[in-house]
Amino acid sequence: MKVYKLERPEFLRNWLSEEREVFQPVMDATGNGSWQPIAHGAVEEFDDELRPLMSPKDFFFSEREDLFRFEAGAENPTFKPIIPRIEKRVLFGVKACDLKAIAYQDKHFATDPNYQARRRQTLLVGIDCHAPCEGGFCPTVDAGPTVRDGTADLVLIPMPSVAGEQAGWWLGCNSQAGEHAIWGMNLKLAEEGWDYWRKLTEKRAKASFPNDTQLLNGIRRLNARAIPDELWDKLGIQCLSCSGCTMVCPSCSCYAVEDIKTPTGYVRERFWDSCLMEGFQKEASGANPTQASGKRVQRFWFHKFSDDIASRMDDSYGCVGCGRCEVTCPGSIGVHSVMEAIANA
Amino acid sequence: MHKQQLIDHTPALMRIVDKYQDGEDLCHFTFAPFNEGESLNKDEMPDLCNINKVQPGQFMMLTIPNAGEAAFTYASMPDENGHFHCLIRKIGELTDALFELEPGAMVGGRGPMGQGWPNLKDKKVLVIAGGCGLAPVAAKVDALIEASAEPVVYFSARNEAMLVMKKERERWQEQCKLYEAVDDCSGASKSYLAGRQLADNLDQIIQDDGPFDHVITCGPEGMMLAVCRIMEGKGFPADHIWLSLERRMHCGVGLCGHCYMADHLVCVDGPTYRWDQLGELVVKEKAIRAPESPLDMGHAASNCGEEKEGCDGNGGCGCR
Ligand SMILES: Cc1cc2nc3c(=O)[nH]c(=O)nc-3n(C[C@H](O)[C@H](O)[C@H](O)COP(=O)(O)OP(=O)(O)OC[C@H]3O[C@@H](n4cnc5c(N)ncnc54)[C@H](O)[C@@H]3O)c2cc1C
Ligand code: SF4
Ligand code: SF4
Ligand code: FES
């Protein structure tokens, strides 16, 4: 990784926004924050702590989108693919956990034309965390707190703070696309030793994460298949099938499709679906392998923490430790509560 | 980033060229490329109609304009002109709309999808099918006949009216050994084996025509399970038994997540499985506990199959 010195992230943002649309986390009226476009020349400060409740997965795997159009016509009916046309853009200030999730989705959707059309036009600017966020446990699943190699084009690395003062930034360049994007900015190379300080920052951050024994034990027990069905059933009762967790989870990827009539034919839309919904696996015959909600809750956590699934996904777990499901679950079966129950099953 | 060949979610245009009733609420459809009259050259043949691209046991996603999309198995391989058959049961909105369509009507298709049956062309194969499960093995039976592998086919159905694929069976009578069984013999036009006596029937067949190298089975999950257990009980190796699963499918290409089973997506990793592989998947989905709780195949084993009561035979429990 080539590393430069950078006085303020806003300089980089402004440089990138000259030729691209730039999105960054912005605090909004909901109090959850969201990803919003920042115009070139805008003076808006960059909030290096904010991580919106919704991950950026919608930028690539759209919450709702058209896949193709059908035009009726007795002689010449046609099916035409609808591939999104996306201008060059930048996601600015993506945390390590969300970047790991994007890498996970990149693998899952490697052959999906609509996902890839969006992904290939997007430059990722990551940012190292120097302290745990609330509810986060990225180190446990090897997703953070510093940006993992190969998950971002550019990385904002905070210099160690001296007496609470932010001293400045390093800018790590991880890819050719990143290198091209900053070409001409005339940044000075960082002095040797930046990686020593980066590692120290990571060590300090890791040391302040809460105890994760329950999580580790939960993961081990889940993979040992040591969790009795009764526990899943009990957790199933607490699941309201609201699908909130699957919506906020940056690595959930299930979808369903629906045909929507147009004046001359129809379009096929796909939209986010959730394996926690009762009808998810219901077949036309009425058979449903996962009728019991305990089975569906089991599925969700199996998808997140199974070694078998990880081995098909470059050895990454489907959970990146962001803690969002805990925040959103109205039935109190987010990641910490579930893993605690499992660890003690 | 991973750079791989991109897939296409857009169906190819097809036409229904033939349709006839083939069992209660069942129709046999022939599909063909939409433009076939206009000298379709080989490169323009959609993959799902291409004789060189499809294998027995694979399936395709059929689109009915304004009614949606669903998975159907190839009941025959495409011929030189891209014509192929599916046996389709009328069961819901999409199939209702399909049954309204007449020859000439336009439909869409994506495929072929999934893993087909193994080759087995120099092997002695016993094919065991139940109900509509005959469709997914029919193309394989034909392929084995063509390879002079002399397959033996056992086919059972609820009653005589549900003995599907009459034309194919009449042909097989000449080309290979075919056993037919029905559960309810009342009013039958001729005598059949008793469908409910699966174990005895298989004993007899193995005695008369065996030994077999491989078994291929397709039918309600309860029946496949029974076949696997009976065969294993006879010491037949689990890795020589093959079956085909059905799961709800929305994409057919490993993306939508609906067809999961443990760490597999049945649409790309299946739908055909070796019994020992499937056994592993079943175990993966379960807590491993004391051996008094035997393996089962999930929903179908608990409310369907030979030994269970309460099955109304209408498929509500997943049996066909
Ligand atoms: C690999 C595979 C091969 C199949 N082969 C055949 C075959 O050869 N012949 C045959 O008659 N049937 C076959 N089926 C079952 C067939 O796909 C369903 O019967 C069909 O989806 C019924 O659709 P429907 O819209 O009429 O029912 P509805 O009840 O109206 O279905 C509503 C919705 O549920 C979805 N859905 C429900 N069940 C299924 C399902 N099992 N698979 C996919 N989507 C589903 C449909 O997409 C539809 O949008 C196969 C299924 C699979 C998975
Ligand atoms: S399972 Fe929960 S903690 Fe893990 S990535 Fe998804 S939302 Fe975040
Ligand atoms: S989970 Fe880790 S990487 Fe993600 S925001 Fe929290 S501390 Fe940062
Ligand atoms: S049908 Fe979509 S993943 Fe299998």
UniProtKB/TrEMBL annotation, chain A:
Q: Name one GO molecular function term.
A: metal ion binding
UniProt-listed Pfam families: Fer4_22
InterPro entries named in the record: 4Fe4S_Fe-S-bd (IPR017896), 4Fe4S_Fe_S_CS (IPR017900)
TM region(s), chain numbering: none
Check the record and name the SUPFAM superfamilies matching this protein.
Answer: alpha-helical ferredoxin
Keywords recorded for this protein, A-Z: Iron, Iron-sulfur, Metal-binding
What's the superkingdom here?
Bacteria
Q: Domain 4Fe-4S ferredoxin-type spans what residues?
A: 228-260, 309-338
This protein is called what? 4Fe-4S ferredoxin-type domain-containing protein
Organism, per UniProt? Answer: Pelagibaculum spongiae
Automatic annotation (TrEMBL), chain B:
Q: Which InterPro entries match?
A: Cbr1-like_FAD-bd_dom, Dihydroorotate_DH_Fe-S-bd, FAD-bd_FR_type, FNR_nucleotide-bd, OxRdtase_FAD/NAD-bd, PyrK_electron_transfer, Riboflavin_synthase-like_b-brl
Where do the FAD-binding FR-type domain residues begin and end?
A: 9-119
A GO molecular function annotation here is: oxidoreductase activity
Q: By its UniProt entry, which Gene3D superfamilies does this protein fall under? A: Nucleotide-binding domain of ferredoxin-NADP reductase (FNR) module, Translation factors
By its UniProt entry, which PROSITE patterns does this protein fall under?
FAD_FR
Q: Which domain of life is it from?
A: Bacteria
| Name assigned to this protein | Oxidoreductase
This protein's species is Pelagibaculum spongiae
**Mind giving the lineage of the organism this protein is from?**
Bacteria, Pseudomonadati, Pseudomonadota, Gammaproteobacteria, Oceanospirillales
